[in-house]
Design goal:
- By secondary structure, this protein is mostly helical.
- It has a domain of 55 residues.
- Helix content is 40%, strand content 0%.
- The protein is built from 3 helices and no strands.
């Protein structure tokens, strides 16, 4: 099992591949739309690879990277919800 001290450094080519494969979805926490990131990945890939590697090497992650928006999804439509009263 890998620990934080043992990881493979991400290359610019890998960062470019990951950015290209990202789904075309945008979250309210995203500072830029996904289509823009994908269109500019040739410019962003070197920075993203460097940032990722530095974050892993230092073990420090910005607070902004620790937030998430979680929305529950209804798995079955038409489900009847019963309210019990006592």
């Amino acid at each position: 099992m890998l620990t934080l001290a043992e990881w493979t450094v991400i290359t610019v080519a890998e960062a470019d591949k990951l950015l290209a494969a990202a789904p075309n979805k945008t979250c309210q926490l995203d500072p830029a739309p996904t289509w823009l990131i994908k269109d500019m990945r040739w410019l962003l890939s070197p920075f993203m690879a460097l940032l990722f590697n530095k974050l892993l090497a230092s073990g420090c992650f910005p607070t902004e990277f620790k937030h998430a928006v979680v929305r529950p999804l209804l798995k079955k439509s038409g489900r009847i919800i019963l309210k019990w009263t006592v």
